[in-house]
Amino acid sequence: MAPSCTLNRYLLLMAQEHLEFRLPEIKSLLSLFGGQFASSQETYGKSPFWILNIPSEDIARNLMKRTVCAKSIFELWGHGQSPEELYSSLKNYPVEKMVPFLHSDSTYKIKIHTFNKTLTQEEKIKRIDALEFLPFEGKVNLKKPQHVFSVLEDYGLDPNRIPENPHNIYFGRWIADGQRELIESYSVKKRHFIGNTSMDAGLSFIMANHGKVKENDIVFDPFVGTGGLLIASAHFGAYVYGTDIDYNTVHGLGKATRKNQKWRGPDENIRANLRQYGLEKYYLDVLVSDASKPSWRKGTYFDAIITDPPYGIRESTRRTEEACSFPRSHVPVSLSYHLSDMFLDLLNFAAETLVLGGRLVYWLPVYTPEYTEEMVPWHPCLKLISNCEQKLSSHTSRRLITMEKVQKFENRDQYSHLLSDHFLPYQGHNSFREKYFSGVTKEFTVELSSC
């Protein structure tokens, strides 16, 4: 008989996009629902097939109610590098675990899934017939079966060198599908109110999952823009709140972003976006506010802070300062806001206002030739959980940084040493905008010279 640990083995079929984001999402969600990701399981790389030890089927189902990085999960009954190894593995699987799904009153079907290879119908039928040794007593129902079983074959990652035989073969009972359909149903293309930098729907849900957002949480976005990150958090049942320095964006005024539309309509705003998806009840408010000068009483308010600060490319980095034009008249003046200052303020704000265990999830733009891990801003109250790269161009990228609050914030003066050069190697990226466009110019010049 197989070891008892096989009783809790599950097979995850992962989507083949945002590869660096997959592992942190699965880890965060398992942690959220009471599971744990064993360190021995961190060797998947780019493969779409992951074998996980999960404590219960309920946790597996809860995981799939949230993930956008995984397509499906199966209770793993057998696994081998050849058909013979697979059949041997299945014969060692405890019969008592099979019986509830194979009895005479049940209906079932078997599906064949291949990665990086297409099989003929004849080949699929041959694989199904080879499983006749399994104790199926129920009836086949191809339309509405009670139980679905799958044979999954892995032919590697290289479409130009597809092997004759699969590298690995898996057999399992289908448990649930992930939330891939959210990417389409929440697509920015269909959204009522958008801006120049509205966050892609898939990445918005990934960020909410990295932040372990759950029902009745309070989630804050200090650079809210058109509210895409609020929508993803509200979908998972969190109450959402945000601020932005841009009055027109917060109030849905000014020129429209969409092609062939000159001005924004009377109901193009963040609240309308949440209303579009039936999430208005989770909308707390959005205010015009300068992120460099948070107007908050001291305290811990937020379960998660999830944000995409401006990089100075399509949205300017700005803060305000009062200029005295007359003795009793103070006029706010818009000033540039260095990226290093912005992220220092963000980390200080998160350390001060997050509950213990709360998470900060944000995008950090970097100039790739100069990037090192030491450049990621840090704070003694915050622990780095994950750091995932999304390439923007040949010379720039942005990194999704997830941090968790692990100790109580005392006072801002205590962290003044973080302003020193030793603790701010990211200062070199204050000129990210210039480096971004410098690289674009160089690429264009190379293209012209090669013509």
From TrEMBL:
GO terms for molecular function: tRNA (guanine(10)-N2)-methyltransferase activity; tRNA binding. Keywords: Cytoplasm, Methyltransferase, RNA-binding, S-adenosyl-L-methionine, Transferase, tRNA processing, tRNA-binding. GO terms for biological process: methylation; tRNA processing. The keyword Cell division does not apply. Residues 190-321 form the Ribosomal RNA large subunit methyltransferase K/L-like methyltransferase domain. It is found in: Cytoplasm. GO terms for cellular component: cytoplasm; tRNA methyltransferase complex. It catalyses: guanosine(10) in tRNA + S-adenosyl-L-methionine = N(2)-methylguanosine(10) in tRNA + S-adenosyl-L-homocysteine + H(+). Residues 9-180 form the tRNA (guanine(10)-N(2))-methyltransferase TRMT11 N-terminal domain. Gene3D superfamilies: Vaccinia Virus protein VP39 (3.40.50.150). Its EC number is 2.1.1.214. The keyword Lipid biosynthesis does not apply. Belongs to the class I-like SAM-binding methyltransferase superfamily. TRM11 methyltransferase family. Part of the heterodimeric TRMT11-TRM112 methyltransferase complex; this complex forms an active tRNA methyltransferase, where TRMT112 acts as an activator of the catalytic subunit TRMT11. Catalytic subunit of the TRMT11-TRM112 methyltransferase complex, that specifically mediates the S-adenosyl-L-methionine-dependent N(2)-methylation of guanosine nucleotide at position 10 (m2G10) in tRNAs. This is one of the major tRNA (guanine-N(2))-methyltransferases. This is tRNA (guanine(10)-N(2))-methyltransferase TRMT11. It comes from Rhinopithecus bieti (Black snub-nosed monkey).
